[in-house]
Amino acid sequence: MGKRAVLAPVLLLIWLGCVVRAETPKKPVNLTPPLVFGEGEYRVGPEDVLEVFVWREPELTATVVVRPDGKISLPLISELDASGKTAAQLQQEVRAGLRQYLEDPVVSVIVKEVNSPKLSVLGQVRKPDRYRIKQRITVLEAIAMAGGFTDFAKRDKVVVIRNHGREAQRIVLDLGKALKNDRFGEFYLEPFDTLYVE
């Protein structure tokens, strides 16, 4: 009787766990695509120009350029990592850094010039170069920005090299087929992508 008394509650718990698990609805699959450049808050990068305004402290107010190492230099705070952060995040960090010198600093960070996002358009285009982008841009818009295809361009061999993290992702697009079928969706490029037309 002792084993049955212990075994019955254990079996009941296992059964209830299965029932509860079976009735728990699955989390919906997120079908929305990840944010595209130009959507959401802008993240600062090298060569961007920022204005750091400290209210009633003109000697602490500065216009700075984000250095290639992603840092900015400010009075009293010295160096601060800026690359990859939003203006709001930088504003909070500057405010926190100034609190050791000022009682309640009021800080604003404004992105004055967007210079960091770039992409390269290379290969069989009329003006291969590295281009600054200020907003989201499609593959076709990037090719148009580079003067369009040359006479020797292979529209079926357009390669996007996406440089994120340690490994580059290679995406091959057939623009000729996509344009003929009128099924070409808007394929957006991201900052630091390389677009190569064979």
Description:
- With 198 residues, the protein is an alpha+beta fold.
- It has two domains: 49-113, 2-Layer Sandwich (wza like fold), CATH 3.30.1950.10; 118-197, Outer membrane lipoprotein wza domain like (Outer membrane lipoprotein wza fold like), CATH 3.10.560.
- 24% of the residues lie in helices and 29% in strands.
- It has four helices and twelve strands, in the order αββββαββββαββαββ.
- It has helices spanning 2-23, 87-98, 139-145, 175-181; strands spanning 49-54, 62-65, 71-74, 78-81, 107-113, 118-123, 129-132, 137-138, 158-164, 167-173, 188-189, 194-197.
- The strands form four sheets. It has a five-stranded mixed β-sheet, covered by helices on one side. It has a three-stranded antiparallel β-sheet with strand order 2-1-5.
- A hairpin with a 3-residue loop joins strand 3 (71-74) and strand 4 (78-81).
- The radius of gyration is 27 Å and the shape is elongated.
